[in-house]
Amino acid sequence: MRLDLIRDDGVVLIVRATKKLRDRIGPPDLCGGEQSTTVLGEWYATRFGWRPDVLLLVNESTLLPVLLPLAPAATALSRAVDRIAVAMATHGTSAAIIAAELEQMRTHRIGTTANRGVVGIMSEFSHLADAYRDRGRQPNLDELAARLATTPCSPLYRTHISPDRAFTALVHTIPE
């Protein structure tokens, strides 16, 4: 992707993708010093090698997981924004906050992973998702993500214990 063709008005969502995912969606296009302008901050992403492939996004600050089909990979991050909005609504976020966050997410950049703790949580979510899913049928990705969101995560032990609680606490700090 040519950086000179990307609309740059300073509004950007940063997705830090694993190499396994970048091999499917394209190389990093994050410029040096660029930071996420979203209230939720950066998201980390990887893919589950299921049939069909599934994209896992994890919010860096709350560890909230979001799942969606990876295919078609070229539109995965654009579709991910809609799935993030659904997850926000599922966890009780007001329509005004969701709309403001969606406005901030209209442009996205791909970067390499930088937080090993979040990468470790993604690995744990991957193992749990494998254990939770029924191999005889296609999983309901929203239900699976909601179940993963209730998982106690060690980075959250001193605060909210699980991603769903951490996300709810963060949303309650956002002025409408």
From TrEMBL:
Q: Which residues form the DUF6933 domain?
A: 14-165
The record, for InterPro entries, names: DUF6933 (IPR053864)
Q: Which Pfam families match?
A: DUF6933
Superkingdom classification of source? Bacteria
Q: What is this protein called?
A: DUF6933 domain-containing protein
Q: Lineage, please?
A: Bacteria, Bacillati, Actinomycetota, Actinomycetes, Micromonosporales
